[in-house]
Amino acid sequence: MNKLKTFSFGYSIFIGLIIAAFIKLFIIEFLVVDGISMEPTIKNHQTIIINKLSYGLQNPFGSKLLIQWAKPQKNDIIVYLYKNNLVVKRCIGIENTRLDYLEESKYYLLVDYKEKIPLTNEQYQNLKQCFNIPKDYVFAIGDNYDDSFDSRNYGFIPTSNVLGKVICKWMIFFLEKN
Question: Could you tell me the pTM of the whole model?
Answer without folding.
Answer: 0.86
